[in-house]
Amino acid sequence: MNIIIRNILAVIVGLLVGGAANMALVILGPHVIPPPNGVDITKIEGLKAAMALMEPKHFLFPFLAHALGTLIGAIVAATIAATHKMKFALSIGVCFLVGGVMNIVMLPSAPIWFCALDVIVAYVPMGYLGGRLMAKK
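^ thats the sequence. predicted structure below, dont judge the formating
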């Protein structure tokens, strides 16, 4: 397979698989840690309204979704990439970081501590970790 096509495919598949892992954890989260009583987190308006009622435990699965989705996507991208595996793994981290910042803008009522933790730890470091894990193989 052509190197350029394989590298483009690495990014596309990494984003899709990482996004699917992220979404699976976001969907699973409320089943493991139920949201506060009387809130509807299925719509953005309900989620914004529920932010004031949420405890730190309610942010565990969103953080895990962001971090593990990025890590899995980076591992997939680095595995598929023909060259520059670390660069492609980091590109997944940067793409997910952009999505995370967009999420912060859409949900401005999220706690500052969560936003900081999410942006600092969940994206680029997980992309780097995914690249390092695959560089050893």
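The chain has a mean pLDDT of 92.
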